[in-house]
Each structure stands twice: as C-alpha cells, then as structure tokens.
Design the sequence.
C-alpha cells in the first residue's frame, strides 16, 4: 500500500499582540518561512487586518488563511507541530493512506511535544511554588505583628 501524496490543506494561523503592524509582519514572516519548507507549496494566502481584541484596550488580533499543498501527509503533521495553527482543514484528497511507519513518526512527534510542554509546566509550577513561599516569608518578615500594632493603640 502506498502512502497518499500531494495533500492540499487550509491552515489558519492566529496571532495576538501589539502594535497591529507587527502582527501583519509576523504572519507574513511565518508564511514566508512556511513556503521555504521542503515539500511545501503555498497555493494562496489571505491576511486579515488586525482588530482590537474584545475586552482589551491595547491588544490586537488577526489571522492568516493559508492554502498549501504538501508532498506527503507527514509534512502536514510537521507543519502542525512547528507552526501551531489554530485550525487545519484537509481539502484533498478525501481518503488518505498512511503506513505504520508514518503513524509512528506522527505519534512520536506528538508525544515528544507533549513531554516538552509537560516539562515546561512542571518547571513553572515549581518556580511558582518557590515564589509563593518567598512572598509569604517576606510578608511575615515585613508585616507588623498584629499583637504589636494592637499594643501601640
């Protein structure tokens, strides 16, 4: 059985930040970088104008809709992990075949990324706990004791 070749898909890349012109430039840079990936062809792209986010007076959001064709489905998975699109839609073909080795590559990349994110989350949890302990220590050290403040009254 042969793996499916020439997969066409639509990706949505979304960015948030400020100033608005940086968002457009960031998306343009990501699209350019994606177009330079081996086995990836950009069919079309649309970048929407940045708009002020709801519930925010300073941050903007925008997105790009990019239609691509990749030589094989594994490349689509690699793009997903590398560029983290907000949405992926496979346009064609309707049926995709993938051999066990291909599935192994995709699933191992997924697990590798998840382990990386888990490690970052654990480090952040430890740092947060350490900072909270230090804040409590400083509060105890610098806050006047209730007894002393009541005695002075």
Sequence:
């Amino acid at each position: 059985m042969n793996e499916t070749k020439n997969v066409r898909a639509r990706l949505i890349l979304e960015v948030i930040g400020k100033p608005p012109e940086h968002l457009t430039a960031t998306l343009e840079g990501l699209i350019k970088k994606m177009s330079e990936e081996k086995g990836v062809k950009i069919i079309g792209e649309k970048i929407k104008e940045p708009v002020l986010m709801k519930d925010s007076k300073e941050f903007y959001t925008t997105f790009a809709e990019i239609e691509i064709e990749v030589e094989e489905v594994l490349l689509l998975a690699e793009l997903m992990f590398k560029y983290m699109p907000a949405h992926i839609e496979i346009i064609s073909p309707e049926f995709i075949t993938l051999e066990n080795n291909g599935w192994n590559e995709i699933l191992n990349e997924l697990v590798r990324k998840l382990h990386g994110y888990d490690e970052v989350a654990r480090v952040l949890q430890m740092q947060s706990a350490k900072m909270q302990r230090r804040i409590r220590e400083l509060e105890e050290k610098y806050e006047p004791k209730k007894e002393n403040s009541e005695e002075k009254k």
Observations:
- Residues 66 and 93 are 17 Å apart (CA to CA).
